[in-house]
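Renewal narrative, Specific Aim 1. Our central claim is that a sequence can be written position by position from structural information alone. The example that follows is taken directly from our test logs and has not been curated for this report. It begins with the structure tokens describing the chain, in the order in which they were read.
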């Protein structure tokens, strides 16, 4: 929030001449145009933060701070119990799970006004988020249980899990539980996310929100093995559209002794291994072994 404030402050300190004029408008419109740009900045950055905070639903383990205006003796910091309740002075136990901060404020104010305080002004803040968790599996640096702080995005989860290892595939899978409005559990939903778009291209649409109970899995990438007359024989991760020629390039290219025209692929199938003649533009398959023989001439 401080960074956003500083950015807007710097914007207003800019000389008016460096702010682009509104296309098709007279020069006299420039000051008003600058104000409109500043309002847009506030809308883009500040408003989403407020909405996300309001949308968070309180759950088991969350720590709340509740204050009542002009009644400091009622200040309380209860933690939500396993039954979804907190205990508050004067009114006793209150069920708060599944409610937003604003809804809890309204609920407690209503209970206090019932014979205790006239027109109470209640504030509820979440000081610790503990109720929502996701499980990270597979090629994360630190796989395990991740606690979500408020409404979290996929990038936040990846960061909290230490990032994705070099052996991770290009696709991430989210297994999501669906609860029916009337109660009970519906069919699970499987979501896939293109990690190239998310991590390399910065596609905002790929940075989806994660939900409590999500299982997030990054499988191990498939590899192709290059051997024989290449400069750096070894295993190389298969990326989308990887060809025989590109695999050999990853392996440092052909040596001077390579018999390029006799390059073969040893490929596994349900029937066993087979050896096929390789064309440089052929796409490789998981666990292919590209063999570049030595020329006899």
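The sequence written for that structure reads:
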């Amino acid at each position: 929030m401080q960074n956003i404030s500083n950015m807007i402050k710097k914007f207003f300190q800019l000389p008016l001449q460096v702010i682009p004029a509104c296309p098709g408008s007279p020069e006299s419109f420039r000051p008003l145009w600058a104000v409109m740009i500043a309002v847009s900045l506030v809308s883009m950055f500040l408003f989403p933060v407020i909405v996300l905070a309001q949308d968070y639903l309180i759950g088991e383990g969350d720590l709340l701070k509740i204050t009542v205006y002009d009644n400091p003796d009622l200040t309380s910091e209860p933690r939500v119990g396993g039954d979804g309740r907190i205990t508050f002075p004067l009114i006793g136990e209150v069920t708060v799970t599944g409610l937003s901060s604003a809804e809890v404020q309204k609920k407690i104010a209503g209970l206090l006004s019932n014979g205790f305080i006239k027109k109470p002004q209640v504030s509820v803040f979440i000081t610790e988020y503990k109720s929502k968790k996701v499980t990270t599996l597979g090629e994360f640096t630190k796989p395990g249980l991740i606690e979500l702080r408020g409404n979290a995005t996929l990038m936040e989860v990846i960061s909290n899990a230490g990032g994705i290892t070099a052996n991770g595939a290009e696709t991430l899978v989210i297994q999501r539980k669906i609860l029916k409005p009337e109660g009970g559990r519906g069919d699970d939903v499987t979501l896939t996310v293109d990690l190239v778009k998310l991590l390399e291209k910065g596609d905002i649409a790929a940075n989806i929100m994660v939900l409590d109970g999500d299982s997030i899995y990054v499988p191990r990438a498939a590899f192709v093995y290059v051997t024989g007359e290449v400069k750096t024989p070894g295993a190389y991760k298969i990326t989308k559209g990887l060809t025989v020629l590109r695999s050999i390039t990853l392996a440092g290219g052909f040596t001077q002794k390579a018999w390029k025209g006799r390059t073969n692929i040893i490929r596994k199938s349900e029937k066993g291994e087979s050896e096929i003649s390789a064309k440089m533009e052929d796409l490789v398959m998981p666990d292919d072994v590209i063999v570049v023989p030595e020329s006899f001439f």
